[in-house]
From TrEMBL:
Protein name (database record): DUF805 domain-containing protein
Transmembrane portions of the chain: 38-61, 81-103, 115-134, 146-165
Pfam families named among the record's database cross-references: DUF805 (PF05656)
Species annotation: Akkermansia muciniphila
Lineage: superkingdom: Bacteria
Xref: InterPro entries: DUF805
This protein's record includes keyword Transmembrane helix: yes
UniProt keywords, alphabetically: Membrane, Transmembrane, Transmembrane helix
A single GO cellular-component term on record: membrane
Amino acid sequence: MNTQTRPSLWKYFILCLTKNYCSFSGTAPRREFWGFYLFLYLFSLVFGIAGAVFFAMSLPWGELAGVHDQAQIQAMFAPHITSFILAVQIIMMAFYLPIWGVTIRRLRDAGFSTAWGYGYIALGIIGLLNWAVMDRFHYEGGPVTQFLGIISSACWLLLIILACFPSRPAVEDTPE
C-alpha cells in the first residue's frame, strides 16, 4: 500500500471512534490497532493527570492537616475517590466498544481466533465483578485477587504479542 494513501495513526483513531465504533466484523491492520491504542493511552495519560490535579484540589486540606486518625482520613477521602472513579468509568464506557472492536478485528486480520479477544472481555468483566465485590464487602484482597491480576496481565501480554503478528494474506477465491 502506498504511504500517501494510507491513513495516519490519528485518522485511524478517529475512524475507530466514528465509522468503526461498534464494528466487530472485518479486519484491522496493525497500523489501525496501534494508532488507536497510542492515542487512547495518550489521552488517558493527559486526562488522568488532569483528573488527579482536580482530585487533589477538591480535597479539604485544611481539615486534613489537623486529623491524625487513619479512619477519619479515609472517611474524608472516600467521597472524593468514589466520585473520581465513577467519573473515569463513565468516560471509559464510551471507549469499551471501540477497544473490543479493534482488538477483535486485529486478531482476525492476523489470522487468530477471535475467542482470544472475547476471553479477554470475559476476564475484564470478572475483574470488574471482583472489584465490585471487594468494594461492597470491604475485602482486603488476597490470593484470589492476586491470581486474577496475574491472569489478566498475562492475557493482556498475550494479546499484545498476537497483535504484533503481520496480517495474513488474503485468501483468493479459487474455483473448485
